[in-house]
Amino acid sequence: MYAEGVPPGTDQMHSLVSDFFPWPPHTLHILSLLQDGFAEDVGRLPADLRESSAELIRSAFAHGRLEDKRIAVEVSGVLRDEDLLPILRSAVSFGGGN
Question: What would you measure as the largest C-alpha separation in the chain, in angstroms?
Fold first, then answer.
């Protein structure tokens, strides 16, 4: 299915699709597994892994569409509080944007 009135393979369609955040392959699945696996103590995750996750999630939240922002919030359980709180504040603020 494609956007109403925009045939696939056109520049207009590319413009619509390219607005989505380019999540690297399998990243959402990995973030979800980490979040679920370390739910009791995310502090056990290595600091560099948490920082890499934070960079990706912040980028998706800042540059992605509304759906990307929702997904970023869903997988943000692996973040440190100082990385998580600004995202959550922005998500619940008026308009839910950045």
Answer: 50
- Please state the domain extents for the chain: 24-92
* 14 has pLDDT over 90: no
Burial of 12 (0-12, 13-18, 19+ CB in 10 A): middle
Neighbouring C-beta atoms of residue 54, cutoff 10 Å: 18
Residues 71, 66: Cα–Cα separation, whole Å: 9
Tens of pLDDT, residues 54-70 = 999 999 999 999 999 99
Kindly tell me the sign of the dihedral angle through the C-alpha atoms of 69, 75, 80, 85: positive
How far is Cα 16 from Cα 52, in angstroms, rounded to an integer? 28
Amino acid residing at 79: L
Please spell the DSSP secondary structure of 23-46, one letter per residue.
PPTTHHHHHHHHHHHTTT-GGGS-
User: Quick check: helix, strand or coil at residue 67?
Assistant: helix
